[in-house]
Known about the structure:
Elements: H1 2-22, H2 27-33, H3 59-74, H4 87-109, H5 122-133, H6 164-181, E1 192-196, H7 202-210, E2 213-217, E3 220-221, H8 236-241, E4 250-253, E5 274-288, E6 292-293, E7 299-307, E8 319-327, E9 333-341, E10 345-351, E11 370-385, H9 392-398, E12 403-405, E13 440-442, H10 447-463, H11 469-484, H12 489-501, H13 504-507, H14 518-529, H15 536-543, H16 550-562, H17 566-577, H18 598-617
Antiparallel strand pairs: 1-11, 2-3, 2-4, 4-11, 5-6, 5-9, 5-11, 7-8, 7-10, 12-13
Helix pairs in contact: 1-4, 3-4, 6-12, 10-11, 10-12, 11-12, 14-15, 17-18
Amino acid sequence: xxxxxxxxxxxxxxxxxxxxxxxxxxxxxxxxxxxxxxxxxxxxxxxxxxxxxxxxxxxxxxxxxxxxxxxxxxxxxxxxxxxxxxxxxxxxxxxxxxxxxxxxxxxxxxxxxxxxxxxxxxxxxxxxxxxxxxxxxxxxxxxxxxxxxxxxxxxxxxxxxxxxxxxxxxxxxxxxxxxxxxxxxxxxxxxxxxxxxxxxxxxxxxxxxxxxxxxxxxxxxxxxxxxxxxxxxxxxxxxxxxxxxxxxxxxxxxxxxxxxxxxxxxxxxxxxxxxxxxxxxxxxxxxxxxxxxxxxxxxxxxxxxxxxxxxxxxxxxxxxxxxxxxxxxxxxxxxxxxxxxxxxxxxxxxxxxxxxxxxxxxxxxxxxxxxxxxxxxxxxxxxxxxxxxxxxxxxxxxxxxxxxxxxxxxxxxxxxxxxxxxxxxxxxxxxxxxxxxxxxxxxxxxxxxxxxxxxxxxxxxxxxxxxxxxxxxxxxxxxxxxxxxxxxxxxxxxxxxxxxxxxxxxxxxxxxxxxxxxxxxxxxxxxxxxxxxxxxxxxxxxxxxxxxxxxxxxxxxxxxxxxxxxxxxxxxxxxxxxxxxxxxxxxxxxxxxxxxxxxxxxxxxxxxxxxxxxxxxx
Length: 618
């Protein structure tokens, strides 16, 4: 199909020139109907047609002939009161002008780029960093200045200016990226499995006391923490002392989240960014004034990544959805998935399909309530998960160079690498930092030789095209400068890597000045369908000049659309085209739309994206 489209496009490009060659220049039409008012003597409207050449390659002449075409086509010229030309004469003149203008415009674009130089959007920047370093969940987008918009989209050079504010943020983002990418210990962080009860959070304990949650054991009310009736549970401290909240009981929830109720699993907050395996057990039940009864059907539980701020106290922490999960009637179901978590993130919970419940203000509280509930037995976090060490992000920067302990007495004139201490900042958590003795860093016996080798591998990937030797040499000079100043090899290399990540060759979509080459084509494809850099396959085809071949191009388009990363294109395109990113800009009136909830809102967005995905796939 794409091959035929390309053929049709090529024929469409040739058609105006063919037609223009067949149509005679309408000098007789102009002489009969236009020269009388637009000649050397009169020049009405400042237009002298007798001296205006038909040189459409000239931008000024092209613009004037466009105006002439538009005035004749609209009937404005010849003016009212003047003899009107025959319809076939007018149509012939309009057709000649139209085809000539189209042919000239297409000819002018043959040797010029069709797009203006522009920088990456912040979404493209984040995705590019993720794919370049294999840091699949690093969060950078929201720390960069918001992109402008032109004609409804942000991928337009008119909307993507750059200032010192952008550059300051790019420098900070590069530092953050390198901090996450570089390994600082000889062995990977210890993989731990932590099982957590929803009752570990303070707000859940408050709600348990008021009757909007209940403790369950063996799918019945837990006698050690009976459902509150006329009187609430008052002394949470005493319950904590007798371990009422840590007896492996299930928490049954009757209300979904709101401004005052945002539950999350407080005993865990990420220390080491990376991949984690999440397992959780959910089931639904009915509740009839203190008794567990058959459920009305499947309920939906939502898990999200909650980005805790400062020490984790208070509420209102930002979050993003990880997924919705079935809670079958009266039978537990264990869900498992792997996700990326950044530092200070934890897992949030919401009984999404439930309506608001206010048992805490109801007489009789939970013993007077009848309705649906959603139970969570436990949540388990395993990680961080590493299949190689040092991680691929570190290998992207330092290849196979060894990690060794930095000993100041062996190199007194060399500054050690900066290592901010890692500690658990979130109150109420149980996971802690691994004990690592000493300071570990990359070792090189031939620093400048290794710097040249490492940069020869890194820069073409970062800049998305071959890099000349003199350009690479300028980055090696940065490394030498820092080594001469007393920095260790890792710190000196960081300076070069940071400079590369802030360079125009990285931040901008740089294309060949003349004819579009295969590297530029690879970038156009990947940033259209993946919102990110080309992968190894696209670069391989570009290097061999095969990507522009029609059959290869068709195959690659199908491959890119079939890759999971194409969902980035769907999400970003629909966010802008249909403004789905603004769906939460206004809250529906709760009195007019009491059934509206975040679950319905997320379902609306997911349905739209799924429909568009189906259009592409089919």
